[in-house]
């Protein structure tokens, strides 16, 4: 308990998160260790403290260095690399990332994930890949409510907990393979809330239960085809086809 108390004191939590953490610590102290609720409360408190409420990296964008990095890491794909550089240049000028989400479309193995890694490397940001293939439950995005046994945060918050900063590059892999609708809610609608700049500055994961600012994250999506991307999501994206040219294939 003393360790958790010290972590709360040292953590730079916003007021609403600090209030929730202290309330949960008080509850935890009142629960016998052998009670299942004790481990549930402790896991929740540790999740709160692990989230990067204020931790971030500093962008060090050098467009010339970015161009060299993309050229060194990827052979061909000139239109995609050009658009990525333009996108980064606009972000640098506007000091923000409020534009459309880049969606790299192409067959498996053409370098979509690698381009995402290169963008993170260029910005000196942490990189995390979130697989969306086969996701059919909105709770995978929004998290599970704590009333359920074995509840966990959604993949977005879990990713933030992993990287430990609030401004990483998140690669949303296989966004075209999200299952739409269903008895467990619509994961595409949940993802739209994550990507919408009008909403994502106060995203509430069902497990965490507190607003968290996702607007500092640079999202890049990948897909094999645009045909199965839900229309509402597609409207938020700028599609770039990352297929090698005939000249590149001949060179290979």
From TrEMBL:
High-level lineage: Eukaryota, Metazoa, Porifera, Demospongiae, Heteroscleromorpha
One Gene Ontology term from the biological process aspect of the record: protein catabolic process
Transmembrane segments annotated in the record for this chain: none
Keyword annotations from UniProtKB, A to Z: ATP-binding, Cytoplasm, Hydrolase, Nucleotide-binding, Protease, Serine protease, Stress response
Superkingdom: Eukaryota
Name of the protein: Lon protease homolog 2, peroxisomal
GO molecular function: ATP binding; ATP hydrolysis activity; ATP-dependent peptidase activity; serine-type endopeptidase activity
Residue ranges annotated for the AAA+ ATPase domain, each copy included: 98-243
SUPFAM superfamilies: P-loop containing nucleoside triphosphate hydrolases
Organism name: Geodia barretti (Barrett's horny sponge)
């Amino acid at each position: 308990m003393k360790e958790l108390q010290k972590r709360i004191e040292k953590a730079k939590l916003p007021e609403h998160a600090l209030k929730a953490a202290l309330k949960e610590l008080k509850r935890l102290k009142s629960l016998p260790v052998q009670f299942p609720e004790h481990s549930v409360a402790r896991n929740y408190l540790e999740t709160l403290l692990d989230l990067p409420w204020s931790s971030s990296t500093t962008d060090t964008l050098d467009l010339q260095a970015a161009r060299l990095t993309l050229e060194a890491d990827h052979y061909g794909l000139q239109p995609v690399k050009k658009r990525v550089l333009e996108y980064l240049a606009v972000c640098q000028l506007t000091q923000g990332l409020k534009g459309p989400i880049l969606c790299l479309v192409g067959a498996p193995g053409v370098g979509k994930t690698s381009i995402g890694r290169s963008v993170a490397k260029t910005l000196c940001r942490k990189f995390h890949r979130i697989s969306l293939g086969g996701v059919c439950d909105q709770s995978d995005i929004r998290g599970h409510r704590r009333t359920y046994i074995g509840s966990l945060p959604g993949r977005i918050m879990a990713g933030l907990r992993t990287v430990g900063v609030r401004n990483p590059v998140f690669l949303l892999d296989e966004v075209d393979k999200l299952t739409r609708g269903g008895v467990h809610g619509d994961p595409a609608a949940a993802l739209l809330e994550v990507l919408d700049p009008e909403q994502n500055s106060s995203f509430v994961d069902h497990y965490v239960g507190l607003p968290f600012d996702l607007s500092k994250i640079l999202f890049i999506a990948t897909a094999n085809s645009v045909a199965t991307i839900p229309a509402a999501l597609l409207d938020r994206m700028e599609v770039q086809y990352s297929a090698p040219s005939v000249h590149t294939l001949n060179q290979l």
